[in-house]
Amino acid sequence: MPIKDNDISQDLELFVKESIAAGMPFAIHGGGSKDFYGNPVDAGPLDVTAHSGIVSYDPTELCITVRAGTPLNELESLLAEHQQVLPFEPPQYTDKATIGGAIATGISGPRRAYSGSVRDAILGVQIINGEGEIVNFGGQVMKNVAGYDLSRLIVRSLGTLGLILNVSIRVIPKPERDLSLSFEASQEDALAFFQDLRLKLLPVTATLWKDGKVYIRFSASEKILQSTQQKMASEHKLDEASVTDDFWQNIRDHKDDFFTLSDKPLWRLSLPPTSDNIVRINDPQLIEWGGAQRWVNSNAPANIIHSIASSRGGYATAFKRRQAGCAVFPVLEPNLLHLHRQLKRKMDPHNLFNPNRMYQGV
Amino acid sequence: MPLDLNTKNDLIFRLGEILPPASLITKEEDLKPYECDGLSAYQRLPVAAVLPDTIEQVQQIVKVCSQLQVPIVARGAGTGLSGGALPHEGGIILGLSRFNKILDVDLKSQTARVQPGVRNLAISEAARPFGLYYAPDPSSQIACSIGGNVAENAGGVHCLKYGLTVHNIQQIKIVTIDGELITLGSETLDTPGYDLLGLMTGSEGMLGIIVEIVVKLLPKPHAVSVLMASFDKVEDAGNAVAAIIAEGVIPAGLEMMDKPAIHAAEAFAKANYPLDAEAILLCELDGDAEQLAEQICLVDKTLLNARASNIVIAESAEEQAKLWAGRKSAFPAVGRISPDYYCMDGTIPRKQIAFVLQEISRLSEKFDLGVANVFHAGDGNLHPLILYDANKEGELEKAEQFGAEILELSVKVGGTITGEHGVGHEKIDQMCVQFSPAELTQFFAVKSAFDPMSLLNPGKAIPTLHRCAELGAMHVHNGELPHPEIPRF
Predict the structure, then answer these.
(1) Which domain holds residue B35?
(2) N or C of chain B: less Cβ packing under 10 Å?
(3) Domain boundary among A111, A142, A173
């Protein structure tokens, strides 16, 4: 099915101008698959899903320019037709997830630790700014240092700095094949394995540990994968049963049992990958990104979770199923929060875009 | 604006309270080395240059300047090519050359914590015993400082595969205009809040003073190979670049040189370049031995299909070094065939390479100035070297105009006026071509969030709307005259 080509930027521009005149802030949403992420916004909704389609795509430029409302699954299929993928493998928590939402939240999937994040891949944005004007930053080329890098700033700003219309993203060649292996390991051994892996030049594109097992995905040509499998088999007692095709997709989209069967709050811990195993909580953990992203379903008090993360030089996010009154994001240092508020005030002087979604005043 | 005498005396007195005499330079003859950076066509003397040793001193200096409203221009090694460290006539140069220590190299986290004055290459040298290296390698890497690299978001020949500075740093510490010390980024793969680390990178010293950097280090590739392909037509070389990418190969480096550049480099470096070729491509591949063999085979085939007239594969380190020596000496080599040259830095979509090269040769005839093209073809980053003689009246102006038209052409074909050298003082007028008044206003808004009194490197990188209007070289979109708010006579 071709991607629906529909440019409503003029309507959106008019809407923002009218909102400025009326002093009415709004809550921007795409497919709503990540509505839970961030503080609730006390404002009327603005649906941008109708703004969809490919603005330009030339595979040899390794760049695609796409409207924010374009569904991720359709974008993914188009890229696959040209043997390309998004380097950050964004989650599709529902089939409505859009590229605009992926950019605004900056949430990446399993490949992130091996081929970069959303912000690493962004080349340019077109936004409606705080004065209701359509403006462009960055471009379609890999190297571009003209002006401040506002396209990277837009990534994971949760729609608080402007309304994203189009984004230009760097894409990468899709490796010929994937090979996923698993073997039994304690959490400690898994972390040591991941550490060791970082110094090797194996074609790793995803790593994971849960329920006493390491899972690893390699992506390369058939021949390289064969020799990789031999290397792995000589060092680990690999499971006989193969890892199913949809395993990584279920991890990416939080459809794995780990994410769906628990009713406890889901925490995301972003830690230095070298961090040791966490023993202070007994709840099950799922480790991704070679140790840099750890998930835990836990009823432990928020301050305990935050201190587990901050004592290791990382931070925790109350990702989903939050307890009442629990803030989503960790507290910023006063100096840093001040900079955030200043930036928000300057970029969004009428306080229109998703007020307070990230922090009070941001 | 020059500083009034009272403020100047007050400033120097108060800086003297912070710094020992040897770290505070105020005599005109001693200030000479600071009057320009790597773009020596523009020169200006600052009121003073300060060379602090500690972060606390930087904080105190910034506080004093902030109170007295004195502009601050941060400076690393002074190798920048866009006049970003050109002094402000009423301001000080904040030299970070004494921040030259590598504080820590950590194998486990594959990072190095360094001070901003550390040379780019020194990081890779310190990491070598661990089997690691720092990937971004601007051609000035033996001299340029890492702090300057962050301020300019420096690139180099390996960006296509390994990214720019912004992709290879994890954390920085900055001193804000209020004199506060703030850490941006962390050892984790992301941080809460806005990506201020990304915003600071490439901000040309206009948002804060960078005083410490944590860079990422990569394991050294097990094997490297370099292919050199010759072409009878420049156009074929341009198309070969796209063909390699289309095969799904991301080379570590993919460089192109045209005939004048080949001849200059060969005369200088004796790299065994083919003198009859219209263009050559240098393609560096790396990885583990098995992956590498596969890639060489594929690239070799692709180059032949793209009508390469000859392909040389350099397997040994010596042969590779020889091939690279030609490319890396291209600038000094061109310096030998022309009294002066002016290096441009536009980036264009790869598919436009052949067209843009044709246009550049047309402009070369129009201005009656020679040009040699060397560039990072893999990421479309052009470095046309315009040949001129500054002693001939009017030639510098002609070269500048030629350069400006190349940059405008880059914007027209969907590219940008600067890929890796920065806007600085040099390309400020071309910013009016690339950005609309609303976009420039947005940049000023961001600047004011960090630096409300505009004291950090003022007047660089972002032109005022007034300047753009006066210049007349502007964004004319749909026939609408830009800046209608500004009167015109």
Answers:
(1) 5-95
(2) C
(3) A173
